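Ticket opened by: R.M.
Priority: normal
Category: complex prediction / small molecule

The reporter submitted a protein together with pantoate and asked that the result be attached to this ticket for the collaborator who will pick it up next week. Submitted input follows.
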Amino acid sequence: MITQQIPHATTVSALRARVRSWRDDRLTVGLVPTMGALHDGHLSLVRLARAQCDRVVTSIFVNPKQFAPGEDLDAYPRTLMEDAEKLTDAKCDLIYLPTPDIMYPTGFSATVALKGPALGLESDIRPHFFDGVATVVAKLFNQVRPDMAFFGEKDYQQLLVIRQLVKDLDFPIEILAGATGRDKDGLALSSRNAYLNADERARAGQLNVILKDLATSLQGGTDRKTAEATAIKACQNAFDSVDYIEARCANTLAVLGDGPIAAPTRVLAAVRLGSTRLIDNMAANPPS
Ligand code: PAF
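Result attached by the on-call engineer:
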């Protein structure tokens, strides 16, 4: 029993019974999929869902399919009691807490795989990642059958992958994005920030500064490759290693041509600090 305060369901049938009773009352349902270790970024998605829908389900499931062997599946923070309290305060109506056996029973054999926005960037470094995300999100969509689902812009490539999934597979679900929550120094809120030691945490805010500089430089008309080269150098100086820092088409994540940007652009980065991988992104609009 996780909490007396907020209802929770651990099986698909219990989840569906609850959602069906809301549907019988003609109430709309929003889903906020999470892996738990909730921070204010997640809670702002719950608040957004509250504002848009009559009832809100938050799922908490650390999805093994989006971790490769050797990644941080076992170390990933699990803080269920605190999460339940936060969700109670945020007026979530139901926590859905499936177990790995419920999500992936023996013999489970489906994989949802996308190309398009899933290609490159994160996939170059974590090739298993978007198949795992798309598979679990497709299952969550079918299990909950929400009217709307809410995802953070912090995982911008994931957001575009999920929009593509909904479009390609005709899920009757509207996807809404929440702005990235940030600490005072600009560091994007992430459950993995818990891995940073004090020295690393002091350095981590640099990623936001470097991305801002890159966006400003592109918006000022600097050639894309030149602006990216400056940003790569800045990241190499600030962090232990750099997975990528790039400007891409904001709508499709397609690689951009040379020269100044000419259409809505997104700058995206992933770097490493000790054992922690930081990712972040922001918009850059073409010079007017
Ligand atoms: O962004 C996350 O926390 C996860 O990738 C998601 C969407 C909940 C799927 O496991």
